[in-house]
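Notebook, bench 3.
Goal today: get a predicted structure for Class I SAM-dependent methyltransferase from Tissierella simiarum so we can plan the truncation constructs. The sequence was checked against the plasmid map this morning, with no discrepancies at the termini. Length recorded as 223 residues. Pasting the sequence as submitted so the record is complete.
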Amino acid sequence: MSEQNLRLEEMDSFFNLRAKEYDAHMKETINSFEEYYNLVAEPINYTEEPIEILDLGCGTGLEISAIFNKAPNAKITCIDLSEEMLKILQDKYTSCRKQLNIIKASYLNYSFEKNKYQYILGIMTMHHFLYQDKLELYKKIKSSLREDGKYIEGDYVVTPYHEKKWLKQREDMLNELGEDKLKLYHIDIPFSIKTQRRLFKEAGFNEFNLVFKQGEHYIYWVK
């Protein structure tokens, strides 16, 4: 990952300002971009049933085409903070708009229905949160999955050294903010794979499967 931009921006504003360039940026950033976004759906078993899928931090919907390739009749709930990103998503998928439930919200605070989803995805979005925030979110994800459901995550994964470095940088960035530090800022805090696996175990997931690993770009799923 590149060095952190030290100018703090609130999460929704950050992505609203960059929505139009987001897809091009990700193509330049992610190793093997097309393979990566195709493999995001690899853990999904092909089905023509109208299964329920939850896409957290869906952005412009880069992963949705691959999902529909595996589950063409799926009903996908798409949650994101950025109104501008969601507008692009809607423009991309006008032909299957009735299958998308698009929600502008923070998935940290949004109440997921229990035992509803066959699959939940979090693609390139979870590296913004601290350990305890992630743990509570993973617990919520676990309770929202059906008994045989899977959670699929694609994200940055770093070495333990760089994990500590990014956490220290975050602490330094927020120290002078006072009460404003409680706002949701765009700050990258990628974890090591060891930390990720510990989080999943604490959240109640028993099975971990690695799908893709190239540099700092990983895809894995748990159940």
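The chain has one domain: 11-44+52-222. Strands lie at 52-56, 75-80, 100-104, 117-123, 145-156, 208-214, 217-222.
Flagging this for group meeting.
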